[in-house]
Amino acid sequence: MGSGLQRAQSFMILTTLLYRASHLTVGVIAVAQRRQDVSLQYAGLAVALGLSVLGYGSALRRGWFDRRHVWADVLVTGCLLPFVLCTWGGVREPALLGWAMLLGGSASAAAAIALERFHVLAAVALLVVTHLIGYRVVGASPAVLGGHVNSLLSSAVMAWVMWWYLRRQGRLLDDANARALAAEAHRARYAERLEHHRALHDTVLATLTTLAAGGIDANAPRVRERCAREAAYLRRLIQQTTDEVHHREIGEALEEAVGSVESLQLQVTAQYHDLPKVPPEVAAAFGDAAREALNNVRRHAGTGHAWLTATGDTDGRGGAVVTVVDRGPGFDPERSVPGLGLRGSVRARMAEVGGLATVDTAPGEGVRVELRWPR
Questions:
Q1: Residues pairing with 372 in the sheet
Q2: Cβ of 184: how many Cβ atoms within 10 Å?
Q3: pTM of the model
Q4: For 55, 276, 301, 353, which has the most beta carbons within 10 A of its beta carbon?
Q5: Are 233 and 202 in contact (CB under 8 A)?
Q6: Which H or E element spans position 50?
Q7: Is the Cβ–Cβ distance between 220 and 251 less than 8 Å?
Q8: What are phi and psi of 165, to 5 degrees?
Q9: Which of 41-50, 97-106, 198-207, 229-238 has the lowest average pLDDT?
């Protein structure tokens, strides 16, 4: 089902798709009822259908709208088509132009949720101007003009409000799921520690208590064998507990990663700026992913030098961005399959804590790995 935000996106794509489908249906009925001068209207309807298939088909595949497709729909379907019908299609009545104007409403709805704020205002303004000029050309009454402009603006506002609400609810759901997973992981670790404590009580503590009481010969072969066995158990327990201790700060985790690769003769130039407080598991994921990215530089770049930069994210969400860059030969991402280290140690680690790892490279251009949390 994906995250809450992904569900919200899927719902908005489906909602605006159904809205556009209803407008296209009106267009088909309106054009089919005409008996003459319909060739250009059918062509315009075909263009609107093609842009709809392109825009919404791409959105369904990618998970969200491509802004270029949204702008094409606004400019061609919402703005250009009505003027073409008036100029070359012989349309001189408001009723015959209405179906083309109606498509502007669904175009404004998609623009309201897919474009940035000022681009939304520009797109809606263009659609409103098209309505004002187009209906004036065909002599529409103020009531018809006002009704269509109101429908256009209402479509944009309602789509934006619905998208704002669903996006907010999706993020709240994701946060609740993350807290539930963290609580479950904490309970699992606590249960495991409790089991270790019980095992220590029944083994090591029992042996030490018996030895302290002086009831047995500490040098007896069987006693020494038991002590050795329990020492090995303690060693494994200590190592496991150490692995579970997460770094508390991003800087500490990254410094450990840098130090580990510098001991293997890789020179790293590291810079840190305004690093935020993040959960311990996120700091650990940054450190582990950065270490593997630096290991890839050491193994594949052939330069002996890498640059690591870590900064706080500027979007106000308290996130962080870490980049690892080298000036090696790079590679063609279309022809190279990511190795296990990149898939499992970099991308998977960031994904497990709700982050994102991206790789930007080209032959002869080096490699840039970006680690971002939250995604």
A1: 321, 356
A2: 10
A3: 0.53
A4: 55
A5: no
A6: helix 39-62
A7: no
A8: -70, -45
A9: 198-207
